């Protein structure tokens, strides 16, 4: 009798163990599927970053082919700080309180992506639209004068593109935090977001470096749009396709829940603009050491602005010695494509360095790593100036010897500098936020801190505000350099 009970007990234990193992396998499969779904739900950030990479690598050179003077190109980028300062806080406020059936974030992602597609098409076809509106009828291969209608269309599209980018990026990042909370953790969500950004960067810079779009799709060319313009069209039309696909995947897989209107009414304050007032009022109560962080952040980003705006243009002008319009435009276009390859290298270096930053910060502290990166920026930017001067001097010598093309050694050095600048760029996108959080956390122990949200908000101001005078400085310095060159 006892043996029968013992056998039954053992059988039940085995059955229980098998059941637990099966449950564990099911839970593991659910977790894996949940992670895969989270990854695919963030695809829209990769599509947006693809377009952003094209914007960084191609639009400054393209604007000059429309007649916008080189020294004034930086002024067309002033929409960036305006969008970052105004659009993101307002969109963030309303996306937190949106009660649409499809969720809080997806309505803003949908609208933003549609505006991006329209803006990209407006930019890509600006030369053709400008000709229809009365620009010069000369063929683009011989035209050297300004095309003001095309330039106006381009600027309108550029501004809408920047505003739409900010409309999508904030809600997309917030949605990752929403979807990963409780299951995978916010760090996993942000890591997935950054991974898609890296994928978009690599694909975007590769597309920008490709000069075959006009050969693959000859119908892109017109009398107002030559090879470089047609290449931009092809890359941007691809961006539209990728954004539509990635947006569709995100809209389908990001299972957001509808927000309860009662919760929104209970949490609503004085309106979205109260966030700006609260932020500026809190500046008075910041820890003293935080102002040092803000000052270094502002100066650091001020140093980075000319690189972000003129990186590929520098390669086309200083290394390849081309000009955006006229007979040497093809040489300039080749230099721009080479510059896009340099940006691709910097993206790869940036991604690799990102894995090392946490270990370096633990070993050397975040402040030391940040300081070292700023000295690296100084060294690399100085080297670029020296390489540009040597290239100009060598070009003058080559003209007398009837030699053509860029110096292979200087081109290799320039690409190396592009790759190296990805190291401090990885620090730029991560460490300042960590330093600000450390400062605020240390003060919170003394009861004087203002919270991590304040640290992020104030640091964003330090990044955005210097861009307004910075654009004017770069324009004036461009005129000054032109006089003494």
Automatic annotation (TrEMBL):
It is found in: Cell membrane. It is a multi-pass membrane protein. Its main location: membrane. Gene3D superfamilies: MFS general substrate transporter like domains (1.20.1250.20). GO terms for cellular component: plasma membrane. It comes from the Eukaryota. The chain crosses the membrane at residues 32-52, 72-95, 107-127, 147-168, 188-208, 236-255, 290-308, 339-357, 369-392, 412-435. It holds the Pfam family MFS_2. Keywords: Membrane, Sugar transport, Symport, Transmembrane, Transmembrane helix, Transport. CDD domains: MFS_SLC45_SUC (cd17313). One of its GO terms (molecular function) is sucrose:proton symporter activity. Pathway: Glycan biosynthesis; sucrose metabolism. SUPFAM superfamilies: MFS general substrate transporter. Belongs to the glycoside-pentoside-hexuronide (GPH) cation symporter transporter (TC 2.A.2.4) family. This is Sucrose transporter. It comes from Triticum turgidum subsp. durum.
